[in-house]
């Protein structure tokens, strides 16, 4: 498995979008049209690639204040629970530190809160609804 940063012009981007659709959008009844965010071109895209197929990904959108939002964290169903998600977040954080990013925040699905807590993220504020799923705002100082 290779971890590589790409942008939306990269040949792996279509495979990244496909994974995001299958793991994050299709299960909640959304169409492929709902997959892209408006700020994707300004985001870092870290993908885990095996045989030219994206098996995991995580995105990061920087803000203007030394922080930013981690989003679209997904691992292929056949590989979940085997450490790839942890590896992706740690690799992203290493890159962010080298870019002097100091804070990361994210919207965690309730089922993923324990995953992020193990990586040092903490819940802030009350749970809220997003795409019909209970989410928690979580933060970490790098
Ligand atoms: C959440 C997710 C990114 C974690 O990546 P991963 O590679 O499975 O996780 P790791 O193997 O590094 O870490 C294991 C932990 O992740 C969590 N986890 C594992 N499978 C999961 C799943 N299907 N859904 C949610 N969390 C899961 C558990 O806390 C697990 O800890 P445990 O093994 O002690 O129970 C991945 O499981 C996934 O894509 N889930 C579905 C989509 C999703 O919920 N994305 C997060 C949106 S905020």
Describe the protein in words.
The chain has a 7-stranded mixed sheet with strand order 1-2-3-4-5-7-6. It is globular. The chain is an alpha+beta fold and 142 residues long. The protein has a single domain (2-101), classed as Aminopeptidase (3-Layer(aba) Sandwich). It has 3 helices and 7 strands, in the order E-H-E-E-E-H-E-H-E-E. It binds coenzyme A. Residues 23-24, 73-75, 80-86, 108-109, 111-112, 114-115 line the site of coenzyme A (COA).
Brief synopsis:
The chain has one domain: 3-Layer(aba) Sandwich (Aminopeptidase).
- What is the mean pLDDT? 97
Relevant CATH superfamily: Gcn5-related N-acetyltransferase (GNAT)
What fraction, in percent, of the residue positions are helical?
10-25%
How many separate helices?
3
The unreliable regions are none
The CATH architecture comes to 3-Layer(aba) Sandwich
Shape: globular
**Class from secondary-structure proportions:** alpha+beta
Strand order of the largest sheet: 1-2-3-4-5-7-6
Percentage beta strand: 35-45%
Bound ions, cofactors and other small molecules, one mention each? coenzyme A
* Secondary structure: number of strands: 7
Which series of helices and strands comes N to C?
A: EHEEEHEHEE
Whole-number tally of structural domains: 1
Please summarize the sheet with the most strands: 7 strands, mixed
CATH topology: Aminopeptidase
Compute the CA-based radius of gyration: 14 Å
CA-CA gap between termini: 25 Å
The CATH class turns out to be: Alpha Beta
